[in-house]
Amino acid sequence: MSSTDPLTQRHGAFISQTWSVIAEARKIALANPSKGQSATQLRRIRFLRSKVLALHRTEMHRAEASTPAIDGWFQPVEDTLARAEAYFSDRLSGSCVQDVIAYRTNGKQITAAVHS
User: Fold this and answer.
1) What is the spatial distance between Cα 93 and Cα 34, in angstroms, rounded to a whole number?
2) pLDDT tens across 53-75, in order?
3) What is the 3-state secondary structure (H, E, C) of the chain?
4) According to the model, what pLDDT value does residue 105 have?
5) Which residue of 16, 19, 23, 38 pairs with 91 in a disulfide if CB–CB is 3.0 to 4.6 A?
6) What's the confidence (pLDDT) of residue 12?
7) Could you tell me which of 59, 82, 80 has the C-alpha nearest to residue 6?
8) Other beta carbons within 10 Å of 53
């Protein structure tokens, strides 16, 4: 983000940390994360997203800029966090479905072996 970005000027350290977490999550996403990694990233992303949304509300109450301007400051980071949250949530959902299928398949095999 540029140094003329109002969001960076007001909340530089936090916004910088947020983009760093997003970059780390992107690397993990590209490496086909495990369930544990997906769950960890999902928790981190949700936590940061709640903090960014709270910061957005705080800026709206300060009313030092117009609502569209403030929304514009936050839109890139909020949209990126929302996409990251959706990605890791989908990874976990898919993993859970696979676990259920595997459990049911293995359970049937075990039951068939016991009854034969």
Assistant:
1) 12
2) 999 999 888 877 788 888 998 99
3) CCCCCHHHHHHHHHHHHHHHHHHHHHHHHHCCCCHHHHHHHHHHHHHHHHHHHHHHHHHHHHCCCCHHHHHHHHHHHHHHHHHHHHHHHHHHHHHHHHHHHHHHHHHHHHHHHHHC
4) 65
5) 38
6) 82
7) 59
8) 13
The encoded tokens of residue 115 equal 């009854």
Residue type, 40: T
For Cα atoms 94, 97, 99, give the angle at the middle one, nearest 5 degrees.
110
Q: Report the chain (116 residues): mean pLDDT per 10 consecutive residues.
A: 69 89 94 90 94 92 84 92 92 73 60 47
